[in-house]
Amino acid sequence: MPSEPPGNTPGASSDSGIRGLSCVILQPSYIPWRGYFHQIRKADIFVFYDDVQYDRHGWRNRNRIKTPAGPKWLTIPLHATGKSIEQSRICDMRTVEETNWRARHFETLRHNYTKAPYFAEYRPMLERWYSEPAPVLADFTIGTTIDLARELGITKTQFIRSSALGFEGTKTERLLHILLQVGAKHYISGPSARDYLDESLLKAHDIEVEWMRYAYGEYPQLHPPFDPQLSALDLLLNTGPAAGSYIWGAEPAASAHLQ
Questions:
Q1: 2-37 b/e (C-beta count within 10 Å ≥ 16 → b)
Q2: How far from chain centre, in Å, is Cα 193?
Q3: Contact, 120 vs 165, CB < 8 A?
Q4: Cα–Cα distance between 226 and 235 in angstroms, integer?
Q5: Is this prediction's pTM over 0.90?
Q6: What is the pLDDT of residues 22-40, one digit of tens each?
């Protein structure tokens, strides 16, 4: 099984360069893109925001990989459909195990990345991910995300789930509650949250907000032309131990690719 997140003990420090405990709060996603791991690395505490409404057009159960014919979606099938999805929390979503999607996903990855320079090195991790039942979506995606973070060299960030904290309210009120619970003084957010985040409410509690700016260069990739909008797994299988340098080694600038 993928790694499970440890308890809610805060980490001691991060590389964000800003005083005060730093925190990122993001919905769990399936094998996320580079920017997701950039935020993990900047955080002392990373909160998987798993007790909010599932968004069926987002990244919770799908992501893109590279094939000779271009990008391809890997999508985890779910039991809930239609209105039931709109009324479900991420942590309540269950996968359709009887379809054996895990074997299909592994075979798709093996077929398309067997010639990647580091596929053989990471194959045991992939085999472990897809060899055991994964009935709860969030358990699987959180575990695999933590595994990827560790392989990218992220060792200091502590992980918790928002469902373990429990709080209702507006979006900013919920975020504030989590930040206060973990003792954070520095909140790191993706730019899309500007549409709803009440920054003044956080500042009233002496919590500083940092907005991410994404700009990542190209890396060696199979099947040209280069595609920047892929799972970070593509980066890891192609560049191995150097993968992190293609994320936090980039100069900050605006980017249109957000997950």
A1: bbebeeeeebeebebeeeebbbbbbbbbbbbbbbbb
A2: 16
A3: no
A4: 11
A5: no
A6: 999 999 999 999 999 999 9
